[in-house]
Amino acid sequence: MAQNPPHLRPDLAPKARIETPRPGQPTIGMVSLGCPKALVDSERILTRLRAEGYAISPDYAGAEAVIVNTCGFLDSAKAESLEAIGEALHQNGKVIVTGCLGANPEYITGAHPRVLAVTGPHQYEQVLDAVHAAVPPAPDPFVDLLPASGVSLTPRHYSYLKISEGCNHKCKFCIIPDMRGKLVSRPPRAILREAEKLVEAGVRELLVISQDTSAYGIDIKTTAEGDLRPHITDLARELGQLGAWVRLHYVYPYPHVRHLIPLMAEGLILPYLDIPFQHAHPDVLKRMARPAAASKTLDEIAAWRKDCPEITLRSTFIVGYPGETEAEFQTLLDWMDEAQLDRVGCFQYENVAGARSNDLPDHVSEEIKQDRWDRFMEKAQAISEAKLAAKLGQHMEVIVDELDAEGIATCRTKADAPEIDGNLFIDEGTEALAPGDIVTVEVDEAGAYDLWGRIVS
Question: What is the pTM for the complete model shown?
Fold first, then answer.
């Protein structure tokens, strides 16, 4: 199907995860593009369809219709989504479109008028209605049984856990609130029930995601469910009791984030924070409509590290934002020297239809964007290389993600989220390992982004 990354391609899900359809069973294919939050939406749609008696096809040929879950955040993502829709139409013919790009149906139907239906993000009922119209259900209550954990599009040993939808921020470069609406938090007990079922089904790592994880619960008016507040600190503490690794993504650096750090120091949740800083110069942050206290952020980072020396900090940045001067970019590089972040991603700014940043003056040329991206990544790589070299000789727990035909195990440390951070490789003594195993290794080699180690227990 579409050439989105294999780890985000339900059409390439392992055959063991997709049952052979029974005679006469209706079948649906799925292509899921974009971020993990979209992947969770795809899982929910497939779980509902599976409960109604549909089989899930891993290829176009075996599907009676195909759902394309789109991404619409950047122009490049929109182009990929349109390409995926076109491929599905060519290969199958019956296509239902959902996801973020579906918030602008005319954009999709203008390029692909043959699609059967277009729905926006997390409009599950409308997707199901479109599937019913295209491929009527034919359930068999005696054989169409849905596992308690639902349909998963990730490996069995880790799962994304979405705790809210939408976002209340008004960043000028972002249209997520326009596509997904304002923050809507899930009830804490519902999240915990889902997490408990996942762990009971064998999940060893829960990846907590939302658009703004640290804002979780501020929209819920009730004070508590029993003794459980709808607050990220309380939720994280409860999740930490389930016996799985708990990793937090998309955490804005609000002051109350410091209350999460003791939970990390205690080992209840992983000592890992994924925080979208975006830039360091106060004027750029103001033009982005982002919090502009970069110096205070350095103080917070120092306090986090004092309370939990093992903490890993990951972030993403934008270079070439409209109006960014060389001096402002240099401030970002200098800030990086001080912050010494462990894991860093960087994007070159690009216009997004509907974003307020499009109208800002003094857009930066593509050549300067590329130059700044190169210099930023050179800085980030040097920091990463030095930090990983300091881990030589250390013992650390790793989780096994996969083993290849040569017996090399691809693993991750507590400092590494799947698909976005580095790996630790083991090339000896892996015969008894299986995905999801957690073992202790001694680090004996380090690169710019990855580690190598040997099993010690």
Answer: 0.76
